Amino acid sequence: MGIESSCDETGVGIVRGTELLAHALSSSMDEHVRFGGIVPEVASRAHLEAMIPTLEQACAESGIRVQDVDAIAVTSGPGLSGALLVGVAAAKALALAHDKPLYGVNHLAAHVAVDQLEHGRFDGRVAALLVSGGHTELLLVDDITQDITMLGQTIDEAFEKAKKVA
């Protein structure tokens, strides 16, 4: 089971091997529109409200109970600190309550890793272009779990914020 709460969406995914059994998602984007962008406190509160229903939806879709998963993974960064805190706290509570191992995951690396659900394991070294919100990165991936080299990145988020101020 994986839990994602780095910004404005609460996500829970359940996989068996490389098969995606369920992917439940709750977005708080509509709550941010009136502010002209993501408000960290609004995002954090939305994660609090969405976590249990999103978790229940993923379990219902997959037919898997939390106590039956082998492990729990959670986004540990990068992201909005309050939003990450909600996801990590929920994952820690589930792992403790059900005696499951807990793994912190870099959500940018996870974007690259999820490709393996669709296309299978990487065959050797790959280059990945990641364009996600305020992050654009070119990565060299030798091993998705431990050997990722950043070849370059942009500062998109800084440009986005400056555009809104101007």
Name the descriptors.
166 residues; alpha/beta; Nucleotidyltransferase, domain 5; 5-stranded mixed β-sheet; 3-stranded antiparallel β-sheet; globular
Structure description:
- With 166 residues, the chain is of the alpha/beta class.
- It has one domain (2-121): 2-Layer Sandwich (Nucleotidyltransferase, domain 5).
- 40% of the residues lie in helices and 33% in strands.
- It has six helices and eight strands, in the order βββααβαβααβββα.
- Strands 3-2-1-4-5 form a five-stranded mixed beta sheet.
- β4, α3 and β5 form a beta-alpha-beta unit.
- The chain is globular.
- The model has no long low-confidence stretch (mean pLDDT 88).
Ordered list of secondary-structure elements with their pairings:
Layout lengths: L1 E3 L4 E8 L2 E9 L1 H4 L7 H23 L9 E6 L3 H18 L3 E5 H7 L1 H5 L6 E7 L2 E9 L3 E7 L2 H10 L1
Parallel strand pairs: 1-4, 4-5
Antiparallel strand pairs: 1-2, 2-3, 6-7, 7-8
Total helix count? 6
Order of helices and strands: EEEHHEHEHHEEEH
- Regions with little confidence, pLDDT below 50 for 5+ residues: none
What structural class is derived from the secondary structure elements? alpha/beta
End-to-end Cα distance, whole Å, is 42 Å
Strand runs, count: 8
Helix content: 40-55%
- Average pLDDT, rounded to a whole number, is 88
* Assigned CATH class: Alpha Beta
